[in-house]
Amino acid sequence: MAGEWIQIDIGLDEKPEVQEIIETSGATVEQVVYRLFRLWGWATLNTADGILSGTPATLSRMFGGDDNFWATVQAAGWLAFTADRKIIISSWDKRFSKGAKARIMDNQSRAVRRLSGSCPENVRVPSSTSPENVRMASSQNPDQRRGEEIRGEENRGYEYISCPEAATQPSGPEPCQKQKKPRRKKDPIPDTTPVLYSVPVTGDPANPSWDLTRGLANELSTYYPGCDTEKEIRAAVAWILANPEKRKTAGGMRRFLTSWINRSVNQPGTGRNGQSSPGPTIIDRLANLGVGQ
Questions:
Q1: Backbone dihedral angles phi then psi of residue 128, each to the nearest 5 degrees
Q2: C or N: which end of the chain has fewer Cβ atoms within 10 Å?
Q3: What's this model's pTM, rounded to 2 decimal places?
Q4: Is 91 found in the same domain as 122?
Q5: C-alpha distances out from residue 226 to 38, 71, 261, Å
Q6: Residue 213 in 3-state DSSP?
Q7: Which domain holds residue 28?
Q8: Number of folded domains in the chain?
Q9: Residue 188 included in any domain
Q10: Are residues 199 and 260 in the same domain?
């Protein structure tokens, strides 16, 4: 039948079982390998479970050899003859059944797909480096997930090779994995409004001052509608100028102004009639801080 195939180990002629058959039967290595190949091919075409009707004489007539030869094959553990004239092929489910072939083809397809994009590490190929017989030898080998059903005999005759591309390939997610784009911070909108005060700051010798703009002053006034923020800003700047040892950093100036205005809003007390009593003036606050003394 066209398209049928069987799996043959590259080192079949060197297997201990083959050498035992040669020594016991007196056949040559070519005869042994050829007869085994014919036996397994015949079984693949004529049975689905590895059991056929026949005797040693049947095999001798079809593939050569005598009863003694096929008895040595049976002694090697590669087939068995039953009393009811049946021939049983050993390890059928692991090597020659449709399920075994499907597993082998699946392993080869997976290996080829991985090799098509990049050359992974731990690639195992037959010593003849035939591309259609590539198998993967890693912790992700599908054979291991099936209870290592195809380990042992099937894996003999393969060697490991290294790929130069694998050593230089950058690490990262697999091609099919969705990569997360780094979140980009939005650039702050520059304040182009006029500068009201250029306040001296500390922390960065290359930028000794911080610009207090009209835009920031207007923004603060919206947060404190009942407060004269313009007056409080002038007072805060005056305090900074009067206390150079307590200057703020450029990043801390906004927080400093906010805290200054918060104290101004929360300081005034409440009179007996429920009306707000006047709080201390700017001059009084500067005096309390030691300005001008």
A1: -85, 0
A2: N
A3: 0.38
A4: no
A5: 103, 110, 11
A6: strand
A7: 12-95
A8: 3
A9: no
A10: yes
Q: End-to-end CA distance of the chain: give it in Å, rounded.
A: 112
Cα distance between residue 194 and residue 191, in whole Å: 9
Residue 183 lies in a domain: no
- Tell me, yes or no, whether 76 lies in a domain: yes
Provide the β-strand partners of residue 197: 212
pLDDT of the chain, 293 residues: tens digit per residue: 456 788 788 888 999 999 999 999 999 999 999 999 999 889 988 998 989 999 999 999 999 999 999 999 999 998 999 999 999 998 888 878 878 778 877 887 887 877 776 544 454 545 444 444 444 444 445 545 454 444 444 455 544 444 444 444 555 555 555 667 777 767 678 888 999 899 999 988 898 999 999 999 998 888 888 899 999 999 999 999 999 998 999 889 999 999 999 888 887 543 333 344 455 556 566 656 655 55
Query: Phi then psi for 5, rounded to 5 degrees?
Result: -150, 160
What residues does 198 pair with on adjacent strands? 211
Regarding whether 38 and 88 lie in a shared domain, the answer is yes
Side-chain half-sphere exposure of 50, counting CA atoms within 13 A: 17
Judge whether 113 lies within some domain.
Answer: no
